[in-house]
Amino acid sequence: MLWAKLPQDQNVFWLNGLAGTGKSTIAQSFSEAVAEEGLLGASFFCSRDYLDRKELKHIFPTLAYQLACHYPNFRNNIIRVIKKDPTIAHTSLISQLENLLFNPLSSENVSCIIVIDALDECIDNEPSSAILSVLGQFIKQLPLVKFFITGRPEPRIRTGFRLPLLEPITQIFLLHEVELASVDKDIQLYLRTKLTTIAIQRIELKLPNPWPHEYEIEVLTKKSSQLFIFASTMVRFIESSQHEPDKRLQLLLSTTTAHEGRTGIDSLYSQILLHAFSDIHEPEEFEDIRQVLGAIVLAFNPLSQEDLSAILGVSTSLISTTLRHLHSVILVPSDETKEIRIFHKSFPDFLQDSDRCTDARLHINPETHHRDMALSCLELVKELKRNPCSLKPFTMNQEIKNLTQLVKNRVCGAVEYACIYWAGHLKLSPTSGDFSEQIIDLTTVMLQNAPPWIEVMSLMNHLEGVIHSMNSLLDWLDKVSSSYLPNTVEFIY
Questions:
Q1: CA of 74: how far to CAs of 39, 41, 54, 260, in Å?
Q2: pLDDT at 385
């Protein structure tokens, strides 16, 4: 907050921390605090769970939009830029930064703080962060604007902040090197507060008095080893409304491992999964569980139970049963139309790594599940009918009132997802085996009846996605053996 409020030579602040140390939570709290002070200009919270929040091209246009909402003169400048070049949001990063942020900010002398959280979660193949590289070229010319950036110390992020133009003006705070006693004290306070609240909420159970004991708090704090994600996951495990909190607390306390702390999150996840599916023994049941978990973990945008049911062709009751005991790691709304979300990215990482998730019955193989999602999505897309919104001939999108709501009423969320993301799943699927023939057959049928798909993409204002999808399909076909149905492949080309 001192950095935010006082003049600084270093107007870039990098909150550098390992996974699970609380970067995003701090970024959220910091954003709220500076917003109350009237200092927040804009923020962008990157997330690999959402396609539009993990692509670099969305960062500068989003920040520009928020700044335009706050500052009228900035807004006027942006309007002029868009009128001059309506495609500005699709230009290069350096062009976006110069025209959407640098020129309007410098001409109006706007003073503010811009927050970019979890930069490491954006797709970026450059050796040094593409965002940081272009930011370094302009940042010195914006003395009134401060950038608060969080991210794990991945090589490209580290290299980006070491660039000669950026390094001298960057203040770095290593979250994972905070004095251990200080972190333990915070986690201890968090655990004590949360567990005391559970005791009050579950007063009908007549828990021991006091509950929890102070030594139990100390043991849980030690297990957390400075990882807030570990502490918060334990709390959610204990507070399950379907279980007695003291039994769950004792279960955590009785579990010992030689790998506590930073690798101990694996043992905690293993314990949660073991407890969740302890009464399941049939291989077929675990196939269903993997199917549901794989779709949730690998979806490009979070899906609801209703949408998952339509895409996977399973009942919502199977989905809710699968997730019933996983509320400590997955947010499952009671409303089946609301999105299912994973609390922390360390859980999907765990499930997809066979060296960490050693129970083969629950390990998620990305290629396999991307294949299944691609097939399921294509099945939905090929069943589309023409003119789903019953529009008059030659109607233009801009002529339709409440177009977004109309599409939502006529095209279900599962079909929207399938239209946009079938090719994304295909791109990450295997290129051998019978699956290749299935895909080629499905895409052939779909493309022979392509207008409904293209029409829905247009109604969703996502027409450029048709081109990206076809490019992904062609890239995938290039990797497939030519022995598979050459005539059909030729038709697709």
A1: 16, 11, 26, 51
A2: 87
Three-state secondary-structure class, residue 328: coil
pLDDT of residue 437: 80
Compute CA 230 distance to the chain's CA centroid, rounded to the nearest angstrom. Answer: 19
State yes or no: pLDDT of 12 exceeds 90: yes
Contact 151, 120 (CB under 8 A): yes
Identify the three-state secondary structure at position 439: helix
Helix (H, G, I), strand (E, B) or coil at 393: coil
CA distances from 17 to 23, 119, 454, 458 (A): 6, 12, 43, 41
SS3 label, residue 414: helix
Q: Which residues contact 31 (CB under 8 A, 6 or more apart)?
A: 40, 43, 115
The tokens describing 192, both together, are 């004590």
Q: What is the pTM of this model?
A: 0.75
Tokens 């998730």: give the residue: 357
* C-beta separation of 18 from 176 below 8 A: yes
Report the b/e string of 431-467 with b at 16+ CB within 10 A: beeebbeebbebbbebeeeeebbebbbebbeeeebbe
Whole-angstrom Cα distance, residue 447 to residue 187? 55
How far is it, in rounded angstroms, from Cα 62 to Cα 137? 20
Residue 3 to residues 22, 25, 113, 240, 254, Cα–Cα distance (Å): 19, 18, 10, 40, 44
| Tens-digit pLDDT profile for residues 458-487 | 888 888 889 999 998 888 888 875 555 555
- Report the b/e string of 112-130 with b at 16+ CB within 10 A: bbbbbbbbbbbebeeebbb
What is the spatial distance between Cα 378 and Cα 375, in angstroms, rounded to a whole number? 5
Non-local CB neighbours of 62 within 8 Å, separated by 6+ positions? 42, 44
Token duo for residue 145: 């604007």
* Residues in the chain, total: 493
Integer Cα distance of 432 and 434 in angstroms = 7
- DSSP for 110-174 reads --EEEEEE-GGGSB--SSS-HHHHHHHHHGGG-TTEEEEEEE---HHHHHHHTSTTTGGGEEEEE
